[in-house]
Amino acid sequence: MSASAYTTRSTHACFGGVQGFYSHASGSTGTAMNFAVYQPPQALAGARVPALYYLAGLTCTEETFVIKAGAQRLAAELGLMLVTCDTSPRGLNLPGEAESWDFGLAAGFYLDATVAPWAPHYRMGSYVNAELPALIEAHFPALPGRRGLFGHSMGGHGALVSALRHPGVWQSLSALAPISHPSAVPWGQKAFRGYLGDDPAAWRAYDACELLKAGARFPGPVLVDQGLGDQFLAQLQPDALEAAARDADQPLTLRRHAGYDHGYYFIQTFVHDHLAHHARLLKD
Ligand SMILES: N[C@@H](CCC(=O)N[C@@H](CSC=O)C(=O)NCC(=O)O)C(=O)O
After folding, report:
1. CATH number corresponding to 7-282
2. Cα–Cα distance between 117 and 95 in angstroms, integer?
3. Does residue 101 line the site of ligand 1, with CB under 6 A?
4. What is the pTM of this model?
5. Any idea which residues carry the catalytic annotation?
6. How far is the CA of 46 from the centre of ligand 1 (A)?
7. Which residue ranges run through the membrane (predicted)?
8. What residues does each domain of the chain span?
9. 1 falls in which pLDDT band (50, 70, 90)?
10. The sheet that has 81-85: what strands, in order across it?
11. 60 lines ligand 1 (CB under 6 A)
């Protein structure tokens, strides 16, 4: 399989479009990577459409959002392509890779690792911000330059830091219950120590709050939703994100929702607001 080709694992008619599951040989990770694409009816009729990329959280795969979020119906109405990917490389059998659910497999944290044994393969930052959009735009009817990015939890962190680090790649941004200040919380500290080494100075490049403090900006409004019944609230630090955005004059709407936990019922409830946010910005 060449680096630019992909194989189709399955396709399913869905709200007049097609939900497909695919695999390709990734040059970023040096492994096979699974991804999924929802093509709305407009794309099947021959139009190129904006693409909204979703980054999932710890323990997830490219399938989680597709089967749990209930986003395809509105994506069909809005004419949005939905793209999801896996949350880490797989099949490497690196030492320690499968010992915990918050590091290694399904916990790639959307960064490019710099220390052994992770550095040659745990390169989800390059994968998400360069290789995957190039693959999608070469082989699916996605409009180049009309890319949105959002995600949940670890994937919300991935969306925020990707768009702050690569503002020219992404034209719209949002997050659901993101890990907003990873270098200050156990999930992020464990991942960053493992992938980036012991020096916290290196962690700032992948921390949304620290990026904002250092001058990074996303050139557009950012939408974040957070449940107040979230069992992982202490790992997420929405107040820190709000303060960093305020100090940086970064437009941010952070909505807090009483009673909602961290799971996909929360995501199902608010995902349509995120699709509408992205559609408004990507179709301007
Ligand atoms: N260890 C638990 C919890 C895992 C979990 O809640 N994962 C979240 C993301 S947490 C931060 O990135 C998730 O999205 N899970 C998928 C789901 O379907 O809810 C476990 O393994 O269950």
Report:
1. 3.40.50.1820
2. 8
3. yes
4. 0.98
5. 153, 230, 262
6. 37
7. none
8. 7-282
9. very low
10. 6-14, 17-25, 32-39, 81-85, 49-55, 142-151, 172-176, 222-227, 252-257
11. yes
